[in-house]
């Protein structure tokens, strides 16, 4: 399994997930740069994602929905703040309604995704920083660790295909 470590730090308001892939950095980058590939791994396996908008550049926006096995939609948005292809990118991530309007009562995180070469493969570090301990606790209670880990663990199959 690609996920090698998960840490949440209430004092630093962060959730950090580390994963390793047996593929070069450029190949891992492509998973995020191509919306059709990203759809195959964003969200838990039983909640397929659809990216309606995908603009991976500073100032770009991404809008997506994941659909539960029962047909319920869970939507979100990204506002891309920086891109350092193929080494990573940063973005603000929030929850949205089905028209992609931000949900004001839900947490927003600042995210840094970093891809570094390690022994011919890639170490991916995913760091989400929250505005408060309550916001971090809310997403932890919602199952973000399990959901994100199961999503990231799907990347190996995509890279092998």
From TrEMBL:
SUPFAM superfamilies: Bet v1-like (SSF55961). Belongs to the AHA1 family. This is SRPBCC domain-containing protein. CDD domains: SRPBCC_CalC_Aha1-like. Gene3D superfamilies: 3.30.530.20. Residues 23-159 form the Activator of Hsp90 ATPase homologue 1/2-like C-terminal domain.
């Amino acid at each position: 399994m690609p996920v090698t470590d998960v840490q949440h730090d209430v004092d630093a308001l962060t959730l950090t997930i580390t994963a390793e892939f047996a593929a070069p950095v450029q190949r891992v980058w492509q998973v995020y740069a191509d919306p059709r590939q990203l759809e195959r791994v964003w969200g838990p396996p039983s909640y397929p994602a659809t990216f309606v908008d995908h603009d991976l550049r500073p100032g770009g926006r991404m809008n997506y929905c994941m659909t539960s096995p029962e047909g319920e939609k869970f939507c979100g948005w990204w506002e891309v703040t920086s891109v350092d292809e193929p080494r990573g990118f940063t973005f603000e991530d929030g929850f949205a309604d089905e028209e992609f309007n931000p949900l004001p009562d839900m947490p927003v995180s600042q995210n840094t995704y970093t891809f570094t070469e390690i022994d011919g493969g890639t170490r991916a570090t995913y760091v989400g920083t929250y505005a408060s301990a309550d916001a971090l606790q809310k997403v932890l209670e919602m199952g973000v660790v399990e959901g994100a880990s199961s999503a990231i663990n799907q990347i190996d199959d995509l890279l092998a295909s």
